[in-house]
Amino acid sequence: MLVCCCACDEDKTVDPTLMPEATTTGANTLGCLIDGWVYASGRYGTPSVRLSDDEENHYVEIDAAVGVFSSLHLVLVNPRQGTTCTYTDAVLDEGDLGDGEAYITRMDGTIISGTFSGGSIKEGRFDIKYREKPEGGEAVY
Description:
- This protein is mainly β.
- It has one helix at about 1-5; strands at about 30-35, 35-40, 50-55, 60-65, 70-75, 85-90, 95, 100-105, 110-120, 120-130.
- Strands 1, 2, 3, 4, 5, 6, 7, 8, 9 and 10 form a ten-stranded antiparallel beta sheet that branches.
- The radius of gyration is 15 Å and the shape is globular.
- About 30% of the residues are buried.
């Protein structure tokens, strides 16, 4: 098992102890402080976005690997550019981080960017490329 872990191909050009810059260019980054510790994607992979709807709400689910064996998950509820929305289901490796708020700086059908905080999370930021789902089709990431 140790050999398999050592054979993983990581991007060593990204320092996981530093927060990514707050950008709106689709840099495919996510970072935050959780209980004072830095958790950042980049070195561990690209964050992903999944879109869904129900009768009342539009949801944007964000998943990001923030460590070799750690991933962060949160769900934005009714995000729109230039507004604050809530996020729920914030989880780091099955540990509940509490709900909070996200301010969406860009959401244009190709890029979603913003900041977030609440519960155990402080100074969160994300900037992720995605594409809206086509009429009657599946979302494309």
